[in-house]
Amino acid sequence: MQVRSALATKAVEAEPPVRAAAAPVADGLRGERIMEVCEAMIDVCAALYGVSSKELRNTGKSGTSVTRVRQIAMYVTHVALGIKMQEVGRGFSRDRTTVRYACQVIEDMRDDLEFDRTMITTEQVALAAFRNRLEI
C-alpha cells in the first residue's frame, strides 16, 4: 500500500509546471481591446443618432433619448460584435444587469419594422467599422 502512494507521489512530482502567467497578459490585452471597441461604439452611435458622445459616457442618469442611444450601443456591442455582457458593462461603465436590460428593451422594440431597419443599419455600420478589431 505504501509503494503505491510513493509511486503516486513520484508521478505527481514528475508533471511539468503549469504556465499561468500568460493568461493574465492575454486577458489584459483583451480587456484593453474591448474597452477601445466600447469607446469607439459610443462615438459611432453618437454620430449616427446625433447625440453627444460626452452625454453617452456620462455615468449618471440621462434623458430618454440619450438613454435609448446608449441602450442601442450596448445592444449592438453585445449582439452584433459578440462581446460578453459583463465586458460591455465594464466598457460602458455600467453593470452587467443594465446591459441585459438594454438588450431586452431593444430586442422588444425590434418588433417595430422601422426600428428594426434602423437597428440592421446600425449593426452593419458597427460590423464594418470593427471588422479588423473583432479578433479579440
Tell me about this structure.
The protein has helices spanning 2-14, 22-49, 53-57, 64-79, 85-91, 96-109, 113-129. It is mostly helical and 136 residues long. It is globular. Mean pLDDT is 83; it is low at 1-26.
In short:
With 136 residues, the chain is mainly alpha-helical. Helix content is 74%, strand content 0%.
Low-confidence stretches: 1-26
Q: Helical region count?
A: 7
Proportion of helical residues: over 70%
Distance between the termini: 51 Å
The total beta strand count reads: 0
Give the integer mean of the pLDDT values.
83
Topology, please?
Blueprint: H1 2-14, H2 22-49, H3 53-57, H4 64-79, H5 85-91, H6 96-109, H7 113-129
Question: What tags apply to this protein structure?
Answer:
disordered N terminus; globular; 136 residues; single chain; 7 helices; mainly alpha
